[in-house]
Amino acid sequence: MIDSKELQKKVRKAVSDKRFEHIIGVKDTAACLAMRYGADFDSAVIAGLLHDYCKPLSDKEMLSQAKRRHLPVSRTEQEHPYLLHGKLAAAYGREKFEIHDEDILGAVTWHTTGKPDMSLLEMILFTADYIEPNRKMIPGMEQIREMAFVDLEETVYMILKNTLRYLEETVDPSGIDQHTYETFDFYNEIHLRKKGD
Ligand SMILES: [Fe+2]
Ligand SMILES: [Fe+2]
Questions:
Q1: How many CB atoms lie within 10 A of CB 113?
Q2: Which domain holds residue 86?
Q3: CATH at 54
């Protein structure tokens, strides 16, 4: 597997300054969360560095790259190809950087939509992507950042609740991936169960 310093150099060349800043923010936040929750530190760093590697691709390129690799493309992804950037980054990680750790590749694959019953590393990347320091201050962010170091499942629930509210208010709901709803339902259950205790 590629060393994180090497991967950082490759990523630097592939993305804009602004995106690189975001990626470094995610990498450092994922590293902090790995320390807090006892996840593998190097895996968190590598996943953070890799997660948006394919974001600069155009819609057309995303679709053709996915097709070339025989990756399954849902109807929502067909209509909103940027949703494929996680899956593609995982595929590139495997091919170009010899990253074969399934937990890292899973975290990168699912970082945009989340999925029900995520692993610790998957929840860490999903959370780090949302709360990293360069993110705009939006309603609820302060509470989410605080919760991230207290209870990760509750944090995932709060992020999904915020994301769905934002997406439903601002964009056409057809652009919301089914996985996002399924993930919300899963973490909402956990949230309700904890509240009932
Ligand atoms: Fe992303
Ligand atoms: Fe990101």
A1: 21
A2: 4-196
A3: 1.10.3210.10
117-158 confidence digits (pLDDT tens): 999 999 999 999 999 999 999 899 999 999 999 999 999 999
Tell me the angle at which helices 120-131 and 152-170 cross, rounded to the nearest 10 degrees: 50
pTM: 0.95
Dist. CA 197 → ligand 2 center (Å): 34
Ligand at shortest distance from the CA of 130: 2
Q: How many domains does the chain have?
A: 1
- For residues 159, 160, 161 and 164, what is the CA-based torsion angle, rounded to 10 degrees? 120
Distance 115 CA to ligand 1 centre (A): 14
Predicted pLDDT of residue 195? 86
- How far is ligand 1, taken at its centre, from the CA of residue 38, in Å? 24
